[in-house]
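FORM 7B: Structural annotation worksheet

SECTION A. Query
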Amino acid sequence: MQECPVMKAWRILGRPWRLVIIERLMSNPKTFRELMESMPGISSRTLSKALKELRKAGLVERVCDGKRHYYALTDAGRDLKPVIKALRAWGEKWLREPVSAEASQRSP
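SECTION B. Predicted structure
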């Protein structure tokens, strides 16, 4: 029996911080440090592990401009933009307290 596509996606995206990392990279590539600063509460070890898993899954890539390394979304990662927007809209509609852009940067 073949695994459901929703379950396959959840195995990658349902882990802590994964969707937040993708959301942070939607606007532009970021260095490891920039990602750390945009996600208070995440440890460097957790971020490193999450980025490694997202790279292995083909959602994030590591690029170098000759001076620094950046993390950027691949085409597959960018295709998650409507999913993330829909999750944000659902949360704002159905959760008791709306999530502001500022608040979403403080927690996963």
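SECTION C. Observations
The chain is about 55% helix and 10% strand. The radius of gyration is 14 Å.

SECTION D. Sign-off
Analyst initials: ____
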